[in-house]
Design a protein that fits this description.
The complex is a heterodimer.
Chain A: H1 8-22, H2 32-51, H3 59-81, H4 88-93, H5 100-126, H6 133-163, H7 166-180, H8 193-199, H9 203-216, H10 223-248, H11 251-254
Helix pairs in contact in A: 1-5, 2-3, 3-5, 3-6, 3-7, 3-9, 5-6, 6-7, 6-9, 6-10, 9-10
Chain B: E1 2-16, H1 21-29, E2 35-49, E3 53-58, H2 64-72, E4 79-84, E5 88-91, H3 94-97, H4 104-114, H5 119-133, H6 148-161, E6 166-170, H7 178-193, E7 197-202, H8 208-211, E8 214-219, E9 222-228, H9 229-238
Helix pairs in contact in B: 4-5, 5-6
Classes of the chains: A mainly alpha, B alpha/beta.
Chain lengths: 255, 239
Amino acid sequence: MLEIFKYKQLLAFLVKKELKIKYRNTALGYFWSLLEPLGLMIIYTIVFSIILRFGIENYSLFLLSGLIPWMFVNHSVMRGTKSLTSNSSLIKKVYFPRQLFPLTIVSTNLVNLAISLLLVAAYSFYLGVGVGFKGLMALPIAIVLQFLFVLAVVLLLASINVYFRDVEFISSLGIRGWMYLSPILYPIAKIPEEYLSLYMINPMATIISLYHYVFYGGEFIGMNYLLYTAGFTIILLVISWKVFDKLSRRMGEVI
Amino acid sequence: MNAIEVKNVNKLFKKPYDKTLKGRLISMMRKEKINEQYQALDDVTFSVEKGEGYAIIGKNGAGKSTLFKVISGVIYPDKGSVELNGTIMPLIELSAGLSRDLSGIENIKLNCAIYGLKKDKIEEILPKIVEFAELEDYIDVPIKFYSSGMKARLGFSIAVHIETDIILVDEVLAVGDKDFKEKCYNKMIELKKEGKTIVIVSHSLRPLKKICDRALVLKRGKVQAIGEINEMISMYEKM
């Protein structure tokens, strides 16, 4: 696992390259990383606060503070799953730790997330909600947890996708269901009491609610759920890494 | 100490006839073999001395490229081991691996980073690479607009300028014009004089005589013979 640190330079370079290429040949360039969630926010706001009324105060802010982190998950999983198969020509020719490909995708999205979160913070202050000191302390925890958790998921999906391309289709369907099972469009408070513990199995529930805590002034989810999510993330990451290593051995020939 | 030590390497490729679940179920019901097996490498053992020029020759399908990939670490052998003393640089075709949207200069940097070079080292060898490849005028152009000869020149130039102990060359020299080929051979002879180990996988024999000292003849995954280069080439030609 430590081998990867030797390739810091390469990772930095690959991330830069990804950022550069992602928006090449678009007229608006980097702005797309902001315009995309903004567009979605407008659509969801119209649907859920005008047509289907949830009756949540500052619904657009609530939505934005969950949607921006969700975009990170969405893009990381969608692009990350294909990260090995789309680099097959390189994998077939030269050896370096293949974890770098999924890691590059997730790191690139992390840069986008950081930029977009500034926008959320600005909007929060504009509406008079603001980000407090406690929120500022919680933000790095949310980001680190989310990064590691998503990395674990992407490592697993990307490596299996080399052997069974079915994963690409499953993950694009799964990500949609996963979004509706995370507190993005509605607050956790809407979940019936008897299903709550089942609902909270999803680590993204805790992570998104942390973002609500930071930017929306939502309630703190509680230490129990936070510890559960941290534990879940670490265990999943270790398993994913091991699986990836194992599957990596034959990648050069089957890809 | 030997630069490369390959011991009893075996590689069996399995290729399922039909990978879908339906296909597999049908084969299982008919009690057919699910996998097609192919012994790409069969008990290959050899060693390359430090500072030696070594050729691996064989016909198409003899297992040359598989052996190349096993040495460079892309493929794991089923059995046996590969030991390397020193850093290794496989010369890869630039056309395949790298990003088509990046310019020549960005591709050089990316390639150097793949081999773990530090930033200041990259800056140092960058002008040398560009000069050797004779691409000064096109270096900021995305490589998707390069001709195959230009890509090959850039690829070769990168490979010989990154300082490694062992250089692996797989028939990429087939492209590039006569003058550039000549330049490449001279560069390889020069590198050999500097004490680097060069392994060439090829079926074009003429240039090998100048660079290589010894050769290994591969036939259907098995080592046919190992010995002095001229002897091996005449033997291969009779095969």
